[in-house]
């Protein structure tokens, strides 16, 4: 186990070995994990003219909509030998560790001077430990969890939170910018993981309170579409309200981000709180509700499903017309992020 100070020393020893990654075709990029994030990152890079040299996933059916002529080596190590930059986008800490370590792992195959970029939302201490092992081999590491929702990732507008060596971050920024409209450098290794976990903790509390608020409004006789708009233009508004309430209204409950993954992130938050000795009363209650929804509905339902618990408890569905083809994008205005709601044919507010 390694701390930040020792890790900073190790990375400084190897920092001058990394070349700039500003040119699209000079560097060979490999991607491990072809779920929602990994496959979309691959598409964004290819669309922008970058060289994606290899793909890998333990599920042979994953990423089948990606070009068939891109090699699919059998192991992460084999992929790493073919690449200058390896990007991982994996569900949970054990998957990251398995892909990086051992005789078939990335660290056994990636050359000195290569770079590992991890888009996974994973364990803080494990991130430091793996970065330490990579640093001993002369491999640069950036943690780069993504946030904002799959709709934005597909548009290349996700926010990427980055931790690690600042020069390496600047060198790799052109790669990261293909899937993000906002790339934020958070600081040394571990800081981006903490920020991403906190974001998902806040989202969970928002989802729980949102479900309660919608039920209160409906039982009080308030039209739910009118309530949605009222909160959007009031002090109670949040990004979660704007982007998740419509997924309750249309009954999909955010299928692109599962409750199993969200519960994993909430547990990561609990582990951080224990490490840094911070009490989490509201988070603990929200986590209990999330786990109850997970047990009842299964790991693969959408992450907004805690609101469905209250629907069933009260026998009060929250689905309404007008959100069947709803989607959203974002605009950055004076340093802030504004959500733009649309339906298939026109802006949401014009309906």
TrEMBL record:
**Pfam families named in the record:** NAD_binding_11, NAD_binding_2
Segments forming domain 6-phosphogluconate dehydrogenase NADP-binding: 28-187
Q: Which GO terms describe its molecular function?
A: 3-hydroxyisobutyrate dehydrogenase activity; NAD binding; NADP binding
Record's superkingdom? Eukaryota
Q: Which InterPro entries match?
A: 6-PGluconate_DH-like_C_sf, 6PGD_dom2, 6PGDH_NADP-bd, HIBADH-like_NADP-bd, NAD(P)-bd_dom_sf
An example of a Gene Ontology cellular component annotation for this protein is: mitochondrion
PANTHER family in the record: 3-HYDROXYISOBUTYRATE DEHYDROGENASE (PTHR22981:SF84), 3-HYDROXYISOBUTYRATE DEHYDROGENASE-RELATED (PTHR22981)
Q: Can you say what this protein is called?
A: 3-hydroxyisobutyrate dehydrogenase
């Amino acid at each position: 186990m390694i701390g930040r100070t020792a890790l900073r020393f190790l990375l400084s020893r190897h920092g001058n070995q990394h070349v700039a990654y500003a040119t699209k075709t000079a560097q060979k990029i490999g991607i491990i994990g072809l779920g929602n994030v990994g496959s979309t990152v691959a598409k964004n890079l290819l669309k922008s003219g970058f060289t994606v040299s290899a793909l890998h996933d333990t599920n042979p059916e994953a990423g089948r909509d990606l070009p068939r002529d891109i090699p699919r080596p059998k192991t992460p190590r084999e992929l790493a030998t073919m690449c200058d930059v390896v990007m991982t986008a994996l569900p949970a800490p054990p998957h990251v560790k398995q892909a990086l370590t051992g005789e078939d792992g990335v660290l056994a195959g990636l050359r000195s001077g290569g770079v590992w970029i991890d888009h996974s939302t994973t364990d803080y201490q494990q991130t430091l430990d793996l970065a330490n092992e990579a640093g001993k081999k002369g491999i640069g590491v950036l943690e780069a969890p993504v946030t904002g929702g799959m709709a934005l990732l597909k548009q290349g507008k996700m926010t990427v939170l980055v931790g690690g060596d600042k020069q390496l971050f600047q060198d790799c920024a052109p790669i990261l910018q293909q899937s993000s409209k906002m790339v934020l450098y958070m600081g040394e290794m571990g800081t981006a993981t903490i920020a991403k976990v906190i974001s998902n903790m806040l989202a969970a509390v928002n989802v729980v309170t949102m479900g309660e608020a919608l039920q209160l409004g409906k039982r009080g006789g308030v039209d739910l579409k009118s309530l949605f708009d009222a909160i959007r233009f009031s002090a109670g508004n949040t990004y979660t309200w704007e982007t998740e309430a419509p997924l309750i209204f249309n009954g999909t409950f955010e299928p692109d981000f599962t409750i199993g993954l969200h519960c994993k992130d909430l547990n990561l938050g609990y582990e951080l709180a224990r490490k840094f000795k911070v009490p989490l009363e509201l988070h603990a209650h929200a986590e209990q509700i999330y786990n109850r929804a997970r047990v009842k509905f299964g790991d693969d339902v959408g992450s907004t499903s805690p609101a469905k618990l209250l629907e069933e408890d009260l026998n009060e569905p929250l689905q309404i017309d007008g959100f069947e083809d709803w989607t959203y994008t974002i605009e950055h205005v004076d340093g802030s992020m504004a959500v733009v709601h649309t339906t298939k044919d026109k802006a949401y507010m014009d309906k």
